[in-house]
Each structure stands twice: as structure tokens, then as C-alpha cells.
Amino acid sequence: MISKKISYERGDVVLVAFSPVVGSEQADTRPAIVVSNELFHRLRIVTVAAVTSRKRAFPGRVSIDPDSSNGISKPSDVLAFQLRTISTNPKRILKKLGKIAPEDLKRLDVALRVVLKLG
Fold first, then answer.
1. How far apart are CA 115 and CA 81, in angstroms?
2. 15-52 pLDDT, tens digit each
């Protein structure tokens, strides 16, 4: 059986099996937002920002509301400070859930610039 190669783009919402983890890294199976440039995806890796439904006021968090296009089930925060480069292997990325709205991706880009001190 030939498996279909899935491609990923910035802003895609994917369901990721983050474990195993160490220390304060985000764990478990949870949504994440693809933030890496598609140029590097041909290496079969993507960089993602973890999503949590635990809402807290803290820098580097971007609120995302659920809608039919993003596949997120409840109001959540994207954690711009919880970045991880992962394999696109189906054992790590379980499925593609949707895509965040362009305005949400712009807000995430601002948070990433702050977190990474890119000016």
C-alpha cells in the first residue's frame, strides 16, 4: 500500500503526540500550530508552537477561538514560547486539524518576534 505524503504549511493546526518530554516541555497529545517556513518541510520536519486550553495571562500567549476552519475544540492559547521541531512522521503528527485565520497567524508572528527577540 502506498501512503499519501501530507504537506504542511505555516498556520496549519496539527494534532501532535509530544511525549516523551523532559521538564517543563508541553506534553501529551495536543494541537499545535506549524510556524516553520515550508522551504524546510521537505526535510520531513516542522517547527510547531504548542496549544493549550488552559487560559492564563502571560507574555507569548496568543488566544485562539474555535471555529470550523481551525479544528480547535475550545478557546485556547498558542504558546509562542513552547516551540519544538518535530518529525512529520505519522507517529508524531497524528493528523491535520485545520488552519488558523490569517489574523491569528499575524498575532502569533508578533508573539514569536517577542519570544525570539527578533526586534
1. 6
2. 999 988 888 888 899 999 999 999 999 999 999 999 99
> Contact, 3 vs 36, CB < 8 A?
no
Q: Is the dihedral of CA 52, 53, 56, 57 positive or negative?
A: positive
Give CATH for domain 12-112: 2.30.30.110
Is the separation of the CB atoms in 27 and 19 below 8 Å?
yes
What is the longest distance spanned by two Cα atoms in the chain?
48
For 29, the grid coordinates are 497529545
Q: For residue 52, what are the β-bridge partners?
A: 77
Phi/psi for 75 (5° steps) reads -50, 130
Rg of the chain in Å (alpha carbons): 14
Tell me the pTM: 0.92
